[in-house]
Amino acid sequence: MVMNKKSVAVVMGGYSDEYVVSLKSGQLIYDSLDRNLYDVYKVVVLKDEWYFLGENDKKYEINRGDFSVTLDNGETLKFDVCFNIIHGTPGENGILQAYWDAIGQKYTGCNFYQSALTFNKKDTLAVLSKYGIPSAKSIYLRKGEDINVDEIVSELNLPLFVKPNQSGSSLGITKVKEKSELIAATEIAFKEDHEILIESFLDGMEVSVGVIDFKGETIVLGITEIVPTNEFFDYEAKYEGASEEITPARIDEETTKRVEEIAKRAYNSLGMSGFSRSEYILMNGIPYMLEMNTNPGFSPASILPQQARHYGISIMDLCGNEVEKALNK
Q1: Could you give the CA distance from residue 45 to residue 276 in angstroms, rounded to a whole number?
Q2: Is residue 308 part of a domain?
């Protein structure tokens, strides 16, 4: 019998449209953590309310001064660790991490700087280029700037991708095939963010690479090939099954080694910790990075749990490893 079990709050939800996915991810983690070691609780963070879910799904407000909760019997419950599984803001872009740092609350995953950096696609790729990690040719625009369509098309060629700089789940991304579609595509992206990226089209296999630090070592959990039935790996493909995911990807040993080496280098160069999933396009055997997710989807259908199963790490061990690292911070 373990004396003095640690209390773990699985913190899910978020302020963006991705909260629906986060609740599924949170449920898997809640179900998977070892009850012999931990008392596990659910906390939901939404724009309008932060609450603890008690018995019979009764809601108790979270005290934002110290992230505690006052129960019916007047007792205060504080958490030894927050297991952060919010996708998008405020859990994947550094906001919650900075708040938890300020109040002295331990949490899983990377710290606020890594979260903020990796949530910004442009800055991530700029930093990683210094470590020799290639990415697509791109142009960066802020809301209100003039958009010179001819100049953009002559520099990047068609087709091209227009993406919000800071949005997860492929929301606001458009593949532009005709010059006439470019302005409308920028308007869609600007709905998600005031900064956007216009990227040249990389014609190759898309792979999603799970990297974690497990028991003190950076490991590649798996390389999953994404075969979208849609034009690209969009929200529908990611979460509604409109893509085929093949683990391991159908690539030769040499390419596999190259992808693993680059994915690990990216993870270590950014000083990452915890779960991560980065997306690459393989062209002529070279992985070009698209983005890095520090709180990737973790529902049973998501790529990271699939990779863990394939690698041979149980979800219980994967999640327990995160909690133990947070406790030892």
Answers
A1: 21
A2: no
